[in-house]
Amino acid sequence: MSISVGTAMGGGRLASSFGVFRLMAEAGAIVKLVLLLLAAFSVICWAIIAFKWRELSRAEQDSEAFLEIYRSRSFGAAYQAATELDRSPLCAVFLEGFEEIRRHAPRAESIQLAQLGEHGAREVAKQLEWAAARQLRSLERGLSFLATTGSSAPFIGLFGTVVGIIQAFQGIAAAGSASLAVVAPGIAEALVATGVGLVAAIPATIFYNYFVNRVEALGQAVELFRTQLAEDVAQQARGGARAPVRATGTVA
User: Where are the domains of the chain?
Assistant: First the structure.
């Protein structure tokens, strides 16, 4: 009975001595540097994840609200909505197109789309293409870092593990013993780097794939809206029936 208790107490002390944070503190200088680098990657990734989640959620909400107004009301109402729902990439595309329309009538009290002509409609369509491309690049901002972390963090952690194992074998050679008490601490310290690398890489990869799908859906919405807006402008430039828009954005 006394042997069992002593063995359990010894096992508890051994488990305590192999705590993760203690292993990190006792790791070599290169391994510590690797761990700090991975920790920085992880913190930045979580900051990007929080930012992108909020950004994409707001963009989706504002886009839905703007599309409902654009499809059911006039250009003037759409302009007013676009200035208020500024978190939507669709609103940004609309406003840039509107500025291009206004550029063709800088001194007019109201913007008559029928006065644009084919040339003006083509210029507006080009501006909408550039605006849509800029919005797509903005939506993708930060995703490259998540992808880089997801692909490189395990290898960075593996590098720390290799260095740690080399240092462990050097310690074994210096001690002249290969017992478990000598080998285990060094190997455990080395493996912590791989574990931390996986901790940084797994959420980065998961959220990268998740955000890519949401960005693709928003990108398709931006492209469809750009095409629809360009067609609407071209149609009204040829004499459509939609109401003209004042230079301030209100219906004339």
Answer: 26-246
